[in-house]
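Lecture 7, part 2: worked example. A protein chain together with magnesium ion.
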Amino acid sequence: MSELLNLEKLFGSHVFNDRVMKERLPKETYQGLRKTIEQSAPLTLEVANVVANAMKDWAIEHGATHYTHWFQPLTGSTAEKHDSFISPTDDGGVILEFSGKQLIKGEPDASSFPSGGLRSTFEARGYTAWDCTSPAFLKEDAVGNVTLTIPTAFCSYTGEALDKKTPLLRSMEAINKQALRVLRALGNKTSKRVTATVGPEQEYFLIDKAYYDERTDLITSGRTLFGAPAPKGQELEDQYFGAIKDRISAFMKDLDTELWKMGISAKTKHNEVAPAQFEMAPIFTTVNIAVDHNQLVMETMQKVALRHDLVCLLHEKPFAGVNGSGKHNNWSLATDDGQNLLEPGKTPHDNEQFLVFLAAVLTAVDTHADLLRTGAANPGNDLRLGANEAPPAIISVFMGEELTDILMALGKGQKAASKGEHYLNIGADSLPSLPKDNTDRNRTSPFAFTGNKFEFRMVPASASIAGPNLILNVIVAEALDATATRLEKAKNINAEAASIIKEAVNKHSRVIFNGNNYSPEWVAEAKKRGIPNITSTVEALKTMVSEKAIALFEKYKVLTEGELHSRYDIYLEHYVKVINIEAQAAIYMVKRQFIPSVIQYTGELAATIRELKAAVTPAPVQKAQLAEVSKLLASASKKLDTLAAALKKAQGVGAVEAKAKAYRDSVFPAQLALRADIDALETILPSDLWPVPTYAEMLFKL
Ligand code: ADP
Ligand code: MG
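Predicted complex, written out as structure tokens:
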């Protein structure tokens, strides 16, 4: 019982949340702020001043000395610059100050953040603007520094988005507007706001810090560029949901505590499929808060791991041959009065509403499968999509057998038959009964309907979830827009809704696939159905600047053509930089660690052979070993040269698109080829001569 009370007190204790605001703000100020939060009403400086002061007092009472505008530049991580509250007085002392102006707007020196040409360096000003819809909180580090952290959006002097949050907030407006139009047309008079809700399940690896420190590849690239498979992989499936070891459990306990303090509802934790792989899932919340929280989750995981002499790897594929890490991005739509719009309802009316929204998602995903794929593109995911357990690069929707049957029947204009007790018996005559619980889980689908939400499983583990969610919001907003326009004009709403659903099924059901997404047959089948299979980041990113995407983003005022082009350039450059670092790290390790070790071993073998010869004993085994190692060494040395040459050539390419292709088509394969020889050498050399920790050590000695 005392545990329970403590947890209740601990949860959100570092958040300037609604409870604190109600307690500390004068009633009018509180109501003014709520209006801004809920209805996007403009914020007056008067309100901001009062809020800032209350925030400062609260933060100082909790030990804070500094505040920061926390933002999410296009690097994919977060940025912060700390300012203390102190302001000098005439008599040599200080007072602590924090004004409404300081709360609302910041001006970090932005010249070092990527802008993709939106802002020249001499005009480096960027602004951070308070996002009052995501609560301010306190960040506390292990040495006891406490900082009042204010979630902000980051844009240029001329108002262009330079971050991940700005377009996300714009996409929330778009989907709110279109979803409300549909609800109104269907007769809903009470809901005032529709928001996307998101619950991201975060996968990660933990390894001992001592091993990490020994590996240049992990330090520079977050993944192993070399490494022969361990004698044991994940084939026994004994890690998944297995008992959690004490050392890991101690880490997880600390992690939970830190997250709970910041109001992040860490709910589920368990061992994942690969050895040394784990998962944490929070309870879902409004999408922009979920995005902020996920950034904090990733940051906190890395910080807390170090306290336990562990390193948390968020890379999508840190180890070859075992599962990689992703994020299952659970997405749905909710009204302010508590309805989940993707919940199959209990009344015919809810049911119609559910099917209309379901049809919109189906339409959106089929129309913009390529764009959705872009939302999951990063260099790490290129190693994962289609590999062990990961969803393939083809976007398809899992609906489950029962829901698919219903949709197909509706597509033919038939009454869908009930299959008995699996279905809610709602007794409507024009609308079908719906499955009660969609338990038929297909773990291979990249985009699966799981009962009352869609689970987008392609999302990379290390990336911000802002991108995939803003894409989901805007593509579904477009489908809902078309639906609303038809419903608003219709004389018979039910008939029109039925024909909207029917048309959506007939036009877009090709994207539904309930089978095994990992099978080669699906790749062929998807091609026949005309569903795109975009296998690399370089191609996937291109979709962002297609005419179709530009028109979509501009129509819903989420990103302008200029902003899209700047993002495209930044992400391509990022791809180039990542592959460049990997190649450089590979060359470094081969030249300075692997080849010297192999040469040492061949020397030792040669000496042994000489000595044995002197003793007049033939040494066939040693000779054979020397020949094999020497052959691999010669091959590795040649491949090293090939990689170095490919790298040099790619570095010399000017235009970013051609450069990215050079890295993908020549640098990356050259590095992979080199790896093959080095990994083969690893299996031959004595373990005490191998210069870096092995997969067996990293994955199993925890
Ligand atoms: P799984 O079997 O995939 O782990 P869970 O039921 O545990 O499924 O849910 C996974 C995630 O989905 C959790 O973060 C949960 O909060 C989230 N989730 C549940 N309902 C919704 C919803 N309506 N919108 C968004 N996310 C949701
Ligand atoms: Mg899941």
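Residues 201, 328, 455 surround magnesium ion (ligand 2) (CB under 6 Å). The radius of gyration is 28 Å. Keep this in mind for problem set question 3.
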